Amino acid sequence: MYLLYAPFLLGMIIAALLAISTSNIHNFFEKILKSKFLAALSSSILLAVLFFVPLGYFLVTLSIKLNSVDPEVFKNIEITIRDFLVNPPEYLLFLKPYMQTTIEDISINSIASYIFSFTGDIGSLSAGYLKNSFLVIVFYFFAQYSGGFIIDLLKRVVQMSADEATLLAKELSSVMSVVFYSIIVNAMLQGILFGLAISYMGYNGLLFGIMYGFASLIPVVGGVLMWLPFTLYEFSMGDSSNAIFIALYTVVVISIVADTFIKPLIIKELNLRLLKEDDAKMNELIIFFAIIAGLTTFGFWGMILGPAITAFFLTILKLFEARTKECENV
């Protein structure tokens, strides 16, 4: 069974976790539409729009923009990089002997080739993302449509009492709901902040805001993929004030303030609003670090897997603790 379904296991797990995360949306649709099938279909369409529309807009617009880039831009970038390497700042003068080889390798063709190669890599990754997302949406529909039957089956099969199985499912559902919505809110917040700054500079704020929202999900280098090209481009155009502004704004306002300080507050607020008083609440800092650990270990989908694994592990520890106390009382 493992060998048979190994290529689809990740998609199935992600779909199941997303179904758990958005069970309240499915229940809302089912209450209105009076049909489990239509509710599952509506939830799947909503999730598909969330996944596909922003990325589709990004890919189409990016392709149009790259095909209309003025060759003069590459020439300006080359001049800027050469000037920097020939006359580096004082604190980098010790690297000047090692920069000669780099200068020889820089040309308009090499820069253009690198940029289009990088764009091709993005396109390839996006195609893989779209394929995986499509499978996740399909599995998500079946998880929503047949979720109740599957959960009841697992409760009967697993070697734990009904109360323990219910506790495990409840805590996992609680944590995943908070994680799912916090990821969406945080990505939207960072995308809006970056889009506003870029709009102020005269660029397409909607496009680059969506791009930054997706990039923010990439661990460690997410924001750098967005603000560094803008900084280099503005320097190449001779506008150092804009270049410095976008670099400082992104690092300080988005990366430090929004991602480091505001994100845990978003998780905490969602913890309070989404969960009832009798629901298990995982500490927002644990969820925050679980998301980071998941992204670092598993990549994009790790933002879902990390908190799920952590919640599952902590719930198992609680069950062991409860059984230990029962044995001591006996």
From TrEMBL:
Localization (cell): Membrane
Keywords assigned: Membrane, Transmembrane, Transmembrane helix
GO cellular component: membrane
Membrane topology: Multi-pass membrane protein
Record-annotated membrane-spanning stretches: 6-25, 37-60, 134-154, 175-200, 206-230, 242-266, 286-316
Short name of any one Pfam family annotated for the protein: AI-2E_transport
Coiled coil: none
Similarity remark: Belongs to the autoinducer-2 exporter (AI-2E) (TC 2.A.86) family.
Identification of the protein by name: Acid membrane antigen A
Originating species: Sulfurimonas denitrificans (strain ATCC 33889 / DSM 1251)
Lineage: Bacteria, Pseudomonadati, Campylobacterota, Epsilonproteobacteria, Campylobacterales
